[in-house]
């Protein structure tokens, strides 16, 4: 993949890492044209997905490789076990955050944790001058309609966030971040704790290759009509 600096030559290589990250986000969003070709749109979305992720979350991470939940195999079973105490405990530790991020990638829902991380970084901004470009990049990337990595928000939360974009504050994304946090805590986090890679870490074994899955859909009675039960396993 081409370097972000080659894709966006207007960026200042001497800029601090966080500022460079948000400039890349802004440039990537601006250069996303609406094309009729689904193939072209998909290719650009994939490129943007890579640019939006900070290096520590995707360095050396390929879905075809065995799914070690952490870069280093030095995470002890005791440390991994603590991740099950609470969702907040999992996200508060770097290794836990990385492990959960990689798990969400196997479910194709990594936009949720990327949005949460972006909001955490946004709240660390020290001046209004920093808030405005960061807020614009986050809104255009994760919240506005048809955003490249749009997160699932209710209409009221999205509307309140949109209205505060004129003069963004450190609390601008609090409601949206809390909504996404609860969604991950109630939905993705329990599945993470039941996943084979996590259970392998707890037991001190090398994590096995994951089974990639799409978001689940609801089954109906019609799906099972004409299917005869198999009692041979009993």
Automatic annotation (TrEMBL):
* Keyword presence, Disulfide bond: no
Q: Which InterPro entries match?
A: RGS, RGS_sf, RGS_subdom1/3, RGS_subdomain_2
All copies of domain RGS, residue ranges:
86-202
Domain of life (superkingdom): Eukaryota
Keyword presence, Isomerase:
no
SUPFAM superfamilies per UniProt: Regulator of G-protein signaling, RGS (SSF48097)
GO BP: negative regulation of signal transduction
* Keywords carried by this UniProt record: Signal transduction inhibitor
PANTHER family on file: REGULATOR OF G PROTEIN SIGNALING, REGULATOR OF G-PROTEIN SIGNALING 18
Return the protein name: RGS18 protein
Please spell out the taxonomic lineage of the organism that makes this protein: Eukaryota, Metazoa, Chordata, Craniata, Vertebrata
Gene it is expressed from: Rgs18
């Amino acid at each position: 993949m081409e370097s972000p600096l080659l894709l966006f030559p207007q960026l200042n290589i001497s800029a601090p890492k966080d500022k460079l990250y948000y400039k890349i986000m802004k440039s990537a969003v601006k250069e996303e044209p609406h094309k009729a070709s689904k193939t072209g749109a998909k290719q650009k979305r994939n490129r943007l997905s890579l640019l939006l992720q900070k290096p520590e979350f995707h360095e050396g991470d390929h879905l075809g490789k065995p799914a070690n939940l952490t870069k280093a195999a030095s995470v002890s079973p005791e440390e991994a076990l603590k991740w099950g105490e609470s969702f907040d405990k999992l996200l508060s530790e770097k290794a836990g955050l990385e492990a959960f991020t990689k798990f969400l990638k196997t479910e194709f829902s990594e936009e949720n944790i990327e949005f949460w991380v972006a909001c955490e970084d946004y709240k660390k901004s020290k001046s209004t001058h920093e808030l405005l470009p960061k807020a614009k990049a986050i809104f255009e990337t994760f919240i506005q309609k048809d955003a490249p990595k749009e997160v699932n928000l209710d209409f009221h939360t999205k509307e309140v966030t949109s209205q505060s974009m004129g003069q963004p504050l450190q609390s601008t994304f609090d409601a949206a971040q809390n909504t996404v946090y609860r969604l991950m805590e109630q939905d993705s986090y329990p599945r993470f704790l039941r996943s084979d890679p996590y259970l392998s870490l707890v037991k001190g074994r090398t994590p096995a290759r994951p089974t990639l899955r799409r978001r689940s859909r609801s089954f109906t009675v019609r799906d099972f009509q004409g299917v005869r039960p198999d009692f041979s396993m009993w």
